[in-house]
Amino acid sequence: MLYKTVIERIPVYGAAVCCLDPPVRIRRKLNTIQIPFLVALTGACRTTTTSVLQAILGIAPLYLQLQQKARVTAIRRLNISLPDTLTTLVPGEDEKGETGWSAHPAECPSEEQMSFVDGGGITSGTCIYTDDSKTKKFVGAAFCVWSGQNIVYRWLAKLQDYYTVFQAELLALKRATDHATSLPHQPITIIVDNQASVQAAANPRSINTTATEMCKSLITNKHIHISWIKAHVDYDRNEEADRFAKDAAESDRDPLSVKAPISFLKSIFKKKMMEDWQSDWEDEDTGRFIFNILPRVSTQPCYWKREKILFFTGHGPYPSYLKRFNLASTANCPCGNTNGTSLHYATACILTTSFHMTKPAQEHELICFRNVDSNEGSRLKIQRLLHHLNDCQELFRINPWSAFISTLFHYLQADMGNFLHPLRRSDSAPELFAASTQKNFYFMEKRIINRTDTHVL
Fold first, then answer.
1. pLDDT value, residue 440
2. Distance between CA atoms of 271 and 299, rounded to whole angstroms?
3. Over 60: is that where the pLDDT of 439 sits?
């Protein structure tokens, strides 16, 4: 998305200076920058609340995003300690990303040294099998050295739960490579069941420090080969390494002290950003109708179409909305209703009967609109209703004269109904007279409606 890749990246430069704890003035300025792009992405009216558009699109407030970037930069590059309420990590306890080439491209590990063909059949010589395991609380990494049919050495470690499977596998591969360099000079094959870690080790431009160190080690030790193997296909030696990794993750030993990955640092501050965003969304005074439909914010967009946004926000071609901003002389609907809202057009207006949905009771409106949001048929009706309102703007544009005629018609209709009420239900009159009276009243009503509609249109 252009917004994510370009617009949000521009104000990130220098964010650590002013956005570690931005004042209210800066927050408002950043919201002002964000509003035009949110409106362009949704097609909503410019008067729609910013927080509503952010919740619909899954885009956090700009000041929170810059604050997250500033916190990461403060620890990784500026060596600034943050309060313990944010993170217990201090500068220097996280991995530093690598830049540039770790070696000349001509010196990179060759295809013979890095094999991506299933190496399950390799049994000759010294083989080192690596594996990892992740449980609910901790992560385990291990490798075992096979010489012939026996395990001559094994290494296993317990890691914190914030380590990913890839990082644990990469650590096991790095320790296996270091162990292989300490053995007598002979062909050694390290067998791994994770292709991503093998590719990272072969990439001289990897930003991962562990992968970069491993690449340099492989360049200087050409007798060490790395081969990929299929996981969980009953290779006994690989299953043995997997068992060691599980034992390490479930053991009572202390976790290995290694630097926290960059992803963990970012996840901490992203979680804090989501908490602050949720708190702001709950404390907002506006957009409460959308809040009842979307009570939880998320970075996943809702994929609402423009018509749906105009309907649920109430900011659209409705008299009640136009009157609020002095774009119409009255908030009444041309049909005579005193409240020309989106709900009125969707449930009660006689001019939009073809697009009506069942009108819910007032206490059930919230449940109803949540169901409308999840029902495809209701969504199609909303789209057609908005298209109808847009195509027939003159029909729904009320003026003082048409408002007077419409009101007069309703009063006249009520008075005639009261006058003819005894005739309709008279038991003394013949049935023929009663039927004739009702028929004449029907034509009289129809003639009045036609005349009134002519004046309105």
1. 39
2. 11
3. no
Task: Specify the pLDDT at position 398.
Answer: 60
> What phi and psi values does residue 360 have, to the nearest 5 degrees?
-80, 160
Distances in Å between the Cα of 141 and the Cα atoms of 128, 134, 273, 366 are 13, 9, 31, 50
Assign domain 111-258 to its CATH architecture.
2-Layer Sandwich (3.30)
How many Cα atoms are found within 13 Å in the side-chain-facing hemisphere of 402? 19
Q: Which of 280, 269, 267 is nearest to 31 (CA)?
A: 280
Q: Rounded distance, CA 357 to CA 372, Å?
A: 9
Locate CATH 3.30.420.10 in the chain.
111-258
Enumerate the β-bridge partners of residue 126: 147, 188
Q: For Cα atoms 114, 239, 146, give the angle at the middle one, nearest 5 degrees.
A: 60
Q: End-to-end alpha-carbon separation of the chain, Å?
A: 45
Question: What pLDDT is attached to residue 312?
Answer: 92
DSSP letters of 76-123?
A: HTS-----TTT-S--TTSBPPPP-S-SS-GGGSPPTTTEE-S--TT--
- In angstroms, how far apart are the furthest CA atoms of the chain? 122
What CA–CA distance (Å, rounded) separates 297 from 311?
Answer: 20
What one-character DSSP code corresponds to residue 260?
A: B
Task: Give the helix/strand (H/E) hosting 429.
Answer: none
Query: At 407, is the pLDDT very low, low, confident or very high (cuts 50, 70, 90)?
Result: low
| pLDDT band per the 50, 70, 90 thresholds, residue 333 | confident
- Each residue of 345-401: pLDDT tens digit? 998 888 898 899 888 887 777 788 888 888 888 889 999 999 988 888 777 766 555
Two tokens, residue 391: 């195509």
Residue 153, H or E segment: strand 150-159
Backbone angles phi, psi at 405, to 5 degrees: -65, -40
Cα(79)–Cα(426) distance, rounded to whole angstroms? 94
- Tell me which residue of 35, 57, 66 sits closest to 276, measured CA to CA: 66
* Helix, strand, coil percentages, rounded to 5, for the chain: 55, 10, 35
Taking 50 as the threshold, does the pLDDT of residue 422 lie above it? Answer: no
